[in-house]
Design goal:
318 residues; 11 strands; 6-stranded mixed β-sheet; Diaminopimelate Epimerase, Chain A, domain 1; alpha/beta; 5-stranded parallel β-sheet
Length: 318
Amino acid sequence: MTVFYDVFNGDADGICALHQLRLAEPRASVLVTGAKRDIVLLERIEAQAGDELTVLDVSLARNAAALQKQLGRGATCRYFDHHFPGEIPAHPNLRTFIDTAPDICTSLLVDRYLDGRNRIWAVVAAFGDNLAAPARKAAAPLKLTEPQLAQLQELGEALNYNAYGDSVDDLNYHPADLYQTLGRYADPFKFINGEPVFDILRAARADDLYLAGELKPELETARCALYVLPDAAWSRRVNGSFSNQLASAHPERAHAVLTAKAGGFSASVRAPLDRPQGADTLCRQFESGGGRSGAAGVNLLPENEFTRFVAVFQQAFD
């Protein structure tokens, strides 16, 4: 009996990418996901011959060995992503839909695959991924009003906010539970207007952003700024939203938001929106770093690497 696995990042892009697919191709599946930085997900699966995997918005480079293992057992896989993939395996059971352009996200790739069916959810995801211009471009054929676009942006940002934390214990909702709640709604406006989960996420995000907004930058120039957040659950939840907020407020500037944790820091990096390149190159210079050209991160930056990170960040963007 075929087992279907849906493997997806727990942020707005991963959730909305899967939601688009399952609205078009409904089926029961095993959900494999986690917090935003929990991207080594294929290791959790023991697929067998005939099983089918759909992978969305997680780095192929970080999952390459596990993917080869699943393919070697006879599973088939569709892989949608916009992060740096490394070497893409050549295998008859693997179909990849990968594009690392700075103005693309995984949900827009799924939208392309589905020829625009359920596009409104790709718009939500693009807004959540801080891709406002691509979101508006994708939304143009939908003839939405400005208030409607603002609502979709708020939804995308709330979904994305929920994914940030060192583990699912930091999150307001487990991403699998959030996806299943969202899955009851084909219309995002019905989710916005009738689902208490949205109100809870919106209020929690606003509270955490207020706390972050009270902090002063550790480094600030005309071209870059760096903030350090304390070791607290609210910091781990808000660092992605705070990074995106800073990027939108200062599109000419690069931003790094470091969050203190045991042994060092996690880091979120945003390239300038005016020049959305270089974030992934910077972060891949550190052992647990990765991402895409406009937005990337480091899962664990050791304390003794802090000074080097600041220097490399300034060299890259200042």
